[in-house]
Amino acid sequence: METLTIVNGDIYTPTHYGQGSIVIQGNTISTLTKDALQPTGEVIDASGYLVIPGLIDGLVHGGGGCDSMTGEVEDVARIARAHARNGVTSLVLGISSGSMAQINDALTAIAHVADEPVVDGSRILGSYVEGKFGSLAKNGAQNAKYITPPNFEEFHAMWAASDGTLKVISVAPENDENLQFIKHLAAYGSDAYNDIIIAMGHTNATYEQAMAAIDAGVTRATHTYNGMSGMHHRALGAIEAVLSHPDIHAELIVDEHHVHPFWGSHLIQQKGIHAVGLITDCTALAGMPSEDWQTSATYVPEIDAYRLGDDMISETDTAFEAGSTEKYIRNDAMWLDIGKPTERLAGATITLMEGVRNVINWGCSIEEALTMATVTPAQNLGVAASVGSIAAGKAADVVIVDADLSVQDVILRGKLLKT
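Predicted structure:
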């Protein structure tokens, strides 16, 4: 069995461990120690650097120029590679609203890579059906044409297409009559659905409806604040339910466009670092140098934005059917229909390491930011026994960064990734 030892690094597990060494045997961490070692096998000297767990992004829609909805296995593999190079070693891939054929093709492709990980790509923890069972009143960038109330016929078709790798299903609880869909999945999730996570998102629920849904089995909030009712001093909605209920994991998009740092910081302060999971909700442009996509983009000075070329709009992207919608990049975020009544955000362009850096700039410590990007999402997704922290017996997903969190080396499942 091959041995890899990281020595002299300042280790965060994600809590601060201090100067020490990590011994990796095969694809597993065997030793974490502050004692002097006589290392064997390959040695990485991390002097002057921080050593942190591989990050976990709980909702991405693409990366490296590829979208998660194409139904192409190689596109999923490219997404995994793009995020791995940026220190994100575990992903959940988002499924947007679309035809059932398109959704099922995408789920099947994601399942293929989840079951047979690419050597140089992030592990795929599963898929995340985000918009299919949302609300028409809060569809955001999800195509309203394909949104339906939660129903077992479509769910079971998606479950079969995913080969049991469907990890998160998001619903608008106000459209779930008597909460029968949520209650069924909560009751039979461990026996029949591989511990599927039930999320609440793209919802116009009242506070009472949202609280009832959480009590019925919802444990996760899809990109908190975005596509969610609430934030009114007289009419409470889903946002206030997420803020007040102790048992809900709140996703937080950390590109500083989807959520202002003021409200992002408030969510963290209100719920604590063990109930907030940092995500990007990123698009195909994540991990892609701007000069690559700008080659075919057109700068529009009057709106200070780049209109993307056709090569960056997938034929399977349901938000752009019949040329009715234009996609732009403005201030490092993706937008639809800038300047029109339908203008709206459509996704981030960052990777999660950039988001962690943002949260630290808000005033969080590195320990707090890393916790929300590693162990907290791992716990909600039910994978904390294997990933999300540096400890003996855990998967050897480790990232070496400098003081500015710029990635120097990525150890992926025990192997040094060539970047």
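Summary: The longest strand covers residues 123-133.
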